[in-house]
Amino acid sequence: MTTTTLTRADAAEPAVRATKAATAPQRAGSRGRVLRVWGPPLAVLAVIVGAWYLVSDVVLAPTQRFLLPAPDAVIRNGFLDPSIMSQLLGSLGRTAFVTLIGLAIAAALGILWAVLMSQARWVERSLFPYAVVLQCVPILALVPLIGFWFGFEYPARIIVCVMIAVFPMVSNTLFGLQAADRGQRELFRLQHASRWTTLWKLQFPGALPAIFAGLRISAGLSVVGAVVGDFFFRQGDPGLGALISNFQASVEAEPLFATIMLASLFGVAIFLLFSWIGRLAVGKWHEF
Predict the structure, then answer these.
(1) What is the distance in angstroms between the CA of the first residue and the CA of the last residue of the chain?
(2) CB atoms within 10 A of CB 83
(3) What is the pLDDT of residues 62-79, one digit of tens each?
(4) Residues 6+ apart with CB under 8 A from 134
């Protein structure tokens, strides 16, 4: 029995060694890919943090360091301060609410706007200039009017968010709808397909990559819109924009920088979330 067991173990040993030898390059390749993906941005982050410390501790005089507090001071007196952190989390929740509502409205409005323009050239010539005007008008010039017309609470903040985020949805969706293959359009026409059938079965599926690309851009812009709207419309519960204004007025440098960093991280998170959703939706058949 012992001889048989040893013989089987000896026979299996080359196979085990071969399996380990085959998996070793795969693990090395996986580590190499991770390093290639995360190495450059982490290196840039290290340079940024080093330059930040250099300016805060060396360039600025002790009496001027409130202009750019060191990263550890921001973390210690901002994120690790329980009273400040409670304000940050509450404001983040309110900003997230405005962001998601504004993004949903901007996405629905932008897609509908683009669908209307894709149906006829005269409709596009009539409506597209106003999408460009909406994108080009300085939003800060309209903020007082929006406050007068809609008040200074959540509806006004959502309107600002929609105005900033809608144009990428319009332009990307229109591009995707108009990029349908000409030969396939002719085939649908030969089959006497209706406008609705052509839109739903040909143009809209082909436009999905462009739509999700626009949604990814609008997701980041909706965070900007929510923060900008909250910065000016301070009535009601404050979001991150109002918190930035409050810390600026009271010259609390570390909480101010912590709020700005949290708003930036939230914008990146929203962008990555919708990038992931786009890859799930169209990544199997289109590079995204």
Answers:
(1) 59
(2) 8
(3) 888 788 888 998 999 889
(4) 163, 166, 167
User: CA angle, corner 249, sides to 243 and 251, nearest 5?
Assistant: 100
Instruction: Give the CA angle between residues 279, 284, 288 to the nearest 5°.
Output: 40
CA angle 83–88–89, rounded 5-degree value: 100
Q: Mean pLDDT of all residues in the chain?
A: 83
The 3-state DSSP class for residue 166 equals helix
Please report which confidence band the pLDDT of residue 20 belongs to, taking 50, 70 and 90 as the band edges: low
Closest CA to 98 of 5, 165, 193: 165
Distances (CA, A) of 198 to 128, 181, 184, 190, 195: 22, 12, 10, 12, 5
Burial class (CB in 10 A: 0-12, 13-18, 19+), 115: middle
CATH code linked to domain 76-282: 1.10.3720.10
pTM of the model: 0.80
> What are the extents of the domains in the chain?
14-63, 76-282
Contact 268, 255 (CB under 8 A): no
